[in-house]
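COURSE: Structural Biology Practicum
ASSIGNMENT: Worksheet 4, Part C
STUDENT ID: 0417
INSTRUCTIONS: Below are two proteins. For each, the amino acid sequence is given first, followed by its structure token string. Answer the questions at the end about the second protein only.

PROTEIN I
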Amino acid sequence: MNTIDLLKPAPGLRVLISGAAAGIGAAIAQAFLEVGAHVYICDVDPVAVDKAARRHPRLHTGIADVADREQVERIIDDARTKLGGLDILVNNAGIAGPTGAVEDIDAEQWERTISTNLNSQYYFLRKAVPVLKETSDNPCIIAMASVAGRLGYPFRTPYAATKWAIVGLVKSLAIELGPSNVRVNAILPGVVEGERMDRVISARAEALGISFDQMKEEYLEKISLRRMVTVHDVAAMTLFLASPAGRNISGQAISVDGNVEYL
């Protein structure tokens, strides 16, 4: 096999992606479909799921609140049945959580962020790992963390706490699952252009009492390349980690962020 072939994920991979009806997850799903994978996505938004299914007729879909363990278990059972097994798990689902000083953050919002961003990863892992151990086709787990999982993020403490925890989970699980030939990595997106990032910038601008444009410029000044990344940049890294070229990459937290220097 030559180097170029190593960069191509094997056709027919069976892929489950959480939170994938829009944004980064949708871009990852599309990328895997384009290389001939069989893809199952779930999302909490039934309207978005329906739109995704109509855009991609080959896509398998389910609706679930990933903070609910029973709903996650149902999704994994359904995905295993429809895909005939599982080779790749992309733990992508997450929410931005509240913005504000820690003493002002509502306890319910804190708990919701932890449940959606962190507990959900465990719920998927608990059920999916035994299935991944059954495949010999370069099985791997890719967890979506954030640049906020390697840098402090003032006024976004619930979000940052979950993303740091995901990195710890990945590094520990890579050691645990390595003897079973299951690789585990985290991707740390930086400032990803799009509606979600616009909402984050707007909320933080309000918390700090400055304009949206001023807050956006402050974000860009913190990035060495002075630009945001796109969902397709993140999807490309996901394909690489799932390809034969990534077969010896495990336990890593890989930033796709233009080198964010601080938050």
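PROTEIN II
(use this one for the questions)
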Amino acid sequence: MIDEAQLIEQLKSKTHKEQAFKVLITLYKERLYWHIRHIVKSHDDTDDVLQNTYIKIYKNIHNFKGDSKLFSWVYRIATNESITFINQNAKKLQITSEEAQLAAINNLTSDVYFEGDAIQLKLQQAIATLPEKQKLVFNMKYFQELKYSEISDILETSEGALKASYHIAVKKIETYLTQD
């Protein structure tokens, strides 16, 4: 197993960049897919955003300063690409990003890659009602089981603020799910 420092060094070298990039993709492919999928919802859109994420990583790896873990930097790019995708999609459709998110969730039932049931769909609808930051924190903590320290590096926010955001998000989701 290659260590992170070696991988970064190889990613930045002209002779090893291609091979190192394949290693990076293998390391993070599944985790990044699900991270992006929880944000953009659709499988096809996730593939597009994932591809954009890899392009951005490839083109900008020389800018990686090592102030955070490579994992955090890669996740930050994936998060930003996901949000950009949602906002661009909303702008194209001339709706708000919240409306775009709700439309994506409503389309989940026709997505052949969505294996959830009615409860999962309702959970996704509840998550969609959250403000952007709470949504991101909830998804990373609940679905990906990231530590607050990792989320803090990715979103560049204090752990205390993240814990508060997560707690508030959970309360809002509980309220949403217990309505009716």
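ANSWER KEY EXCERPT:
Q1: The chain has a mean pLDDT of 88.
Q2: The chain has two domains: 1-115, 117-180.
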